[in-house]
Design a protein that fits this description.
By secondary structure, the protein is an alpha+beta fold. Helix content is 35%, strand content 10%.
Length: 593
């Protein structure tokens, strides 16, 4: 038997429950063969990988035409102004991705021989669930590695990343070449298929044996045994619907223009079908959350989060924090004691239509003299502009406003004339009367969380893929809704076009090209500041060099804030330079050599 020693941060999770998600970790240096007799340690090997899942709220918006930052030393700012390289890459996923896959492969190598519990029925269920989680997580991490590092190699071939499906000990050959892009997609979908064979669609406790899903009925004689393993206590671990959602994400990536080359056979129809499969679990459009566009300020639902449950807009999330103020401290305007880090651009503001549904370039109601009047209500929900309110505070952002919130008034002031309002709880407060010496102790936080998957993303995935595969009014097999239906619902929820039956949408519903433009714009608005724009522009092979602009309310002038310096080859990210130096079988993406 092979023996391995691995330094692990093992989560203290019992096999039948999790405290909303995971408790803090402890450090252990253990022989991995102890996994066979220590199921908590064994599960810790797997659950460690959850900690390295990418954060949706990473600051990639700063590297796009949607936002800039007043943190001029940020690696994101350096990246978008010309300092992105194979050795300085804020979106490098290599170490975290392959480190997590190493944990997962270790677990998969041993899980069938682990003594999970003395109850044979529960032991078989535990092995199924945990094996399903492992395959699902391995596919998820390979997806992120593919998204961040795939591209056309210096040999002209569309390449993915190395595929590792076995634990690599100290004697392994680490000089593994990159697989093709298609081979990576096939491996991800294969892992997801294996995950779905083992996992329930969702983790829910049952009342009696008749409610146990069919695949487990012959395995248990007590409903309590099923609940012990697959019940409510497992919520927020990877389940079948989460895996199905990631099938939507990976096929959308693979069907996109930037990756339609080489041996890639993934189609828009594949992405549409996989997206609808995940959505049909909530009844398709009947499960559409009417408050989903303001999920971050749905304070009643957020405060009620407990025991791994979600509200209607959220499929998967990180663990909640009960005294959270980090987002508000970082992004409130300086007059509210924040650092004003995320500065939306005029480019993004201009993307919001008039409330009548027409783009401002086509709307007879739009006035540059009063640019924030009669606009899409999401503009005021997501972006704080001159004269706008956050909480009960009105903000003035003009350069001549005489306030610390004005353009470039302080190092923490906006550079564009705008502050981000989305993601923030407006009821978080800074106690100006506090005598605490630590500034963080003066913040009065609230319960909050970061989402991993929102249903709105899946609806938009479907709309994009269905429009390309079937046209604006067509539906994927098994779905009774079209791209048009999705966009109509999203815009109606926002209050766009309510007074005229959304005449603009009706005018383009027969035009695939114009619907594509609208779908991409709705995706930009609905998912702004959530880490999508950076990746969307790249998979669309779109222009990355649009200069970020601002607006000075004191003068009425639009001005350039920050150039975007990207070369054409930067549609694809690099393989880390350190890996290229170490392993001669690794081919770099062209342009990065």
């Amino acid at each position: 038997m092979k023996r391995h020693i691995l330094f692990l941060l093992i989560s203290l999770v019992v096999l039948s429950s999790c405290e909303d998600l995971f408790d803090p970790a402890i450090e252990n240096l253990k022989d991995l063969d102890l996994m066979y007799d220590d199921p908590v340690f064994a599960q810790g090997v797997l659950t460690q990988s959850y900690r390295y899942l990418p954060n949706m709220y990473r600051r990639s918006s700063w590297a796009t035409d949607d936002a800039v930052s007043n943190d001029r030393g940020s690696s994101w700012v350096k990246m978008n102004t010309g300092s992105w390289s194979a050795s300085s890459n804020p979106v490098d996923m290599w170490v975290e991705g392959y480190g997590s896959i190493q944990y997962i492969n270790t677990f998969l190598e041993k899980c069938d021989d682990i003594q999970w519990t003395t109850d044979p029925e529960a032991a078989e269920l535990f092995n199924m669930r945990l094996k399903g989680e492992a395959y699902g997580l391995r596919g998820i991490f390979l997806y992120y590695l593919l998204r961040n590092h795939a591209g056309y190699g210096t040999n002209g071939e569309l390449l993915g990343v190395p595929i590792l499906t076995e634990f690599q000990d100290a004697h392994a050959d680490f000089n593994v070449p990159r697989a093709t892009f298609q081979q990576c997609v096939d491996q991800i979908l294969s892992d997801f298929d294996k995950a779905l064979l083992n996992l329930p669609t969702n983790y829910n406790s049952v009342g009696d044996l008749s409610e146990v899903p069919d695949k487990y009925k012959d395995m248990v004689t007590l409903s309590s045994t099923y609940n012990r393993v697959m019940g409510d206590f497992a919520k927020q671990l990877v389940d079948g619907q989460i895996v199905m959602a990631y099938r939507s994400k990976v096929t959308l990536l693979a069907a996109s223009p930037a990756f339609q080359g080489g041996t890639n056979t993934t189609t828009w129809a594949d992405a549409a079908v996989y997206s609808s499969n995940a959505l049909n679990i909530i009844g398709g459009l009947s499960g559409f959350d009417e408050d989903g566009d303001i999920y971050y300020k749905n304070t009643g639902a957020i405060d009620a989060l407990a025991n791994g449950n979600n509200f209607a807009e959220i499929l998967w999330r990180e663990n909640y924090s009960t005294n959270a103020f980090g987002e508000e401290r970082d992004n409130f305007p300086p007059s509210m004691h924040g650092n004003g880090r995320m500065n939306p651009t005029q480019n993004l503001v201009d993307a919001f239509p008039d409330v009548n549904g027409y783009p401002i370039t086509l709307s007879s109601d739009y006035s540059s003299e009063d640019p924030f009047a009669n606009r899409d209500p999401r503009l005021a929900q997501y972006i704080l502009f001159n004269g706008g309110q956050i909480g009960s505070t009105t903000i003035s952002t003009g350069s001549a406003s005489g306030t610390e919130d004005g353009i470039n008034a302080l190092e923490t002031s906006t550079r564009t004339g705008y502050y981000m309002k989305k993601r923030l709880r407006e009821d978080v407060l800074y106690d100006t009367q506090s005598t605490a010496s630590n500034e963080n102790d003066k913040w009065q936080g609230k319960k909050n969380f970061k989402p991993r998957i929102r249903y709105t993303e899946l609806f938009l995935n479907y709309a994009e893929a269905a429009n390309e595969a079937y046209g604006p009014m067509g539906a994927a097999p098994g779905a009774d809704y079209s791209a048009y239906d999705i966009i109509k619902a999203i815009r109606a929820r926002a209050g766009v076009g309510a007074g005229n039956g959304d005449a603009y949408l009706e005018s383009i519903k027969g035009n695939q090209d114009e619907m594509r433009t609208l779908i991409r714009n709705e995706r930009r608005l609905e998912l702004c500041f959530e880490g999508f724009r950076f990746w969307d522009l790249r998979r669309w092979a779109a222009d990355l060099t649009e200069t970020a602009k601002g607006y000075d309310a004191s003068t009425g002038e639009v001005f350039d804030v920050e150039a975007r310096t990207y070369s054409d080859y930067m549609t694809y990210g690099p393989i880390p330079y350190s890996e290229i130096l170490k392993y001669d079988n690794l081919i770099q993406n062209r342009g990065w050599e």
